[in-house]
Amino acid sequence: MIPEIDIRTVDINELQKVFTTGTNLTGTNCALLTGFLNDEQKLLLDRWYASMVEFYKQDSSIKAQTPYRIEDHVGYKQMSRDRFFIERFLYYPSRMTDNDWPESLDKNLATKIVSICDDLTFRILALLDQMIGSGTTLVDAHKPSLNTSGLLYYPAYRGPLYKEDYRHGVHADYNLFTLFWQIPSPYTDITGLEVKDLVGKWHKVQRKEYGVTLCFANALEYWSNNFFKSTPHRVTNDAIEFPRYTMTHYIAPRAGTVLENLSDYNRGNDLVLSGGGKFAADREPLVTSWQSMRAINSGWKG
Ligand SMILES: [Fe+2]
């Protein structure tokens, strides 16, 4: 279980206890956010989830008609993760043309979903600014942003399994933070998502319909001099006989943002990231692009 935080009544002290290395070394560093969707928005999320299921039912040749484009980090791709296959469709309307949209995914609905995600994102960024005392730096760095939304599909599997056969092995994300939606699934109530806390203990993420799991990622850890730590996560093989669908939102500041000393925490010390990456105290400021943020991940071990 991870802490549940109602975004309508959130208290900044409560957040500090969960998330900041400066005040609490036993925090889970991850939370389940609730209480921000109205009934109309829940219906939109349900419709989008149903569209995703229909999209992934299609033949590979149809899905491959809108392939992943690395320059804008959008599109469809099939890849292997550990022993299993995963498919994903990444999207963000302002970086896409009409040709980038599969016929079975409604661009107008996607745009509404991204607005819901970005609205929640700005509320979180404002809270992080408040926690770290950085004014409106984080909020401003995302106007505009390099945010990306994702539809992830893990096909059902019925073959032999081994003990450490994770459906998606341990890793942390490259960006600032990631939101994982929990939409009612027709297949199983098991999420399979597990997160690692600041003292190395793993926690199962509980099911809470229309909740969002918030995990920090490596660029925020780097930018804040380790004040915020990224959240290693993995997906277990529980309920692997069912298909698994995930809706994600990856938050990243616009290209050209300088990631340097967002806080005075740990300033002047060499930086050892939770994944094992090392940076000297006098490191060059990191200027964001898709490539430079991914470079923070190099050497990440989990
Ligand atoms: Fe991830």
Give a verbal description of the structure.
The chain is an alpha+beta fold and about 300 residues long. The protein has a single domain, classed as B-lactam Antibiotic, Isopenicillin N Synthase, Chain (Jelly Rolls). The protein is built from 7 helices and 16 strands. The strands form 4 sheets. Strands 1-2-10-7-12-5-4-3 form an 8-stranded mixed beta sheet. Strands 6-11-8-9 form a 4-stranded antiparallel beta sheet, with no helix packed on it. The chain has a two-stranded antiparallel ribbon with strand order 13-16. Strand 3 and strand 4 form a beta hairpin. Helix 2 crosses helix 4. The protein is globular, with a radius of gyration of 19 Å. The protein starts with a strand and ends in a 7-residue tail after the last helix. The mean pLDDT is about 90. Bound molecules: fe (ii) ion (FE2). Fe (ii) ion binds next to loops.
User: Structural class, from helix and strand content?
Assistant: alpha+beta
Strand content: 15-25%
CATH level-two architecture = Sandwich
Gross morphology is globular
SSE topology sketch:
Elements: E1 4-6, H1 12-19, E2 30-34, H2 39-57, H3 60-63, E3 75-81, E4 84-91, H4 107-132, H5 137-140, E5 148-154, E6 168-171, E7 177-181, E8 193-196, E9 202-204, E10 212-216, H6 218-223, E11 233-235, E12 244-251, E13 258-259, E14 271-272, E15 278-279, E16 286-287, H7 290-295
Parallel strand pairs: 1-2
Antiparallel strand pairs: 2-10, 3-4, 4-5, 5-12, 6-11, 7-10, 7-12, 8-9, 8-11, 13-16, 14-15
Helix pairs in contact: 2-4
Fe (ii) ion is lined by residues 171, 173, 233.
